[in-house]
Design goal:
With 182 residues, the chain is α+β, with helices and mostly antiparallel strands. The protein folds into two domains: 76 residues, no CATH class; 94 residues. Helices cover 41% and strands 21% of the residues. It has six helices and seven strands; from the N terminus they run ααααβββαβββαβ. Strands 1, 2, 3, 4, 5, 6 and 7 form a seven-stranded mixed sheet that branches. α1 crosses α2. It is globular. The two termini are 19 Å apart.
Length: 182
């Protein structure tokens, strides 16, 4: 599952505006500007800015207070992003509604949807489980990630795969899959 086209438009308007604000405040990327679209943006630039953002989410309030033209919906979305979960996650499977990410430090499963394309298109089932690094964040009652994730390109041993599948089954049965962060 992915965001609908109108939801993507709202997401990127708020996300790119926030990233531009963080960049302006901290002078991280020269000539980043105030992009309206992701076309032409470098992943390493976005990664550098979002890393700074997640170091201190209070900057979100600064952005909300300084930005003009934000709707109530925009403010709710941005405020929600202060509730986020950064970390390393094991992508364990893809279900019809979302992809399932395991946070093994907390024994929690998250149902995460893609933004432009399903996570299943980027990480096919035959590649799973796969370790990624990203930040999970709420968006309109669902969980998305902060537009980029890093894939750890390492071989996962058969034993780790077996343990991952066992953990997935056990956690799913005991706690279920969290599909919202609100």
């Amino acid at each position: 599952m992915i965001l609908l086209p109108e939801e993507r438009k709202v997401f990127f308007k708020n996300w790119l505006g926030l990233l531009a604000f963080v960049n302006d405040k901290h002078h991280l990327i020269r000539n980043f500007g105030h992009p309206k679209k992701t076309a032409g943006l470098k992943q390493e630039d976005i990664t550098k800015i979002k890393t700074k953002l997640w170091e201190n989410v209070a900057v979100i309030d600064e952005y909300i207070n300084s930005a003009s033209g934000l709707s109530e919906e925009d403010i709710q979305i941005l405020t929600g992003w202060k509730t986020n979960i950064p970390g390393h996650f094991m992508v364990v499977t893809h279900l019809k509604k979302y992809s399932v990410l395991l946070n093994d430090k907390e024994d929690v499963l998250y149902g995460v949807i893609g933004i432009r394309s399903p996570i299943a298109d980027m990480l096919p089932l035959d590649m799973l489980p796969m370790m990624i690094q990203t930040t999970l964040m709420p968006f309109k009652g669902r969980i998305i990630y902060d537009s980029l994730f890093s894939v750890y390109n390492s071989q996962i041993s058969p034993n780790v795969k077996k343990n991952c599948k066992a953990s997935y089954s056990e956690i799913k049965e005991q706690k279920g899959i969290i599909s919202t962060l609100t």
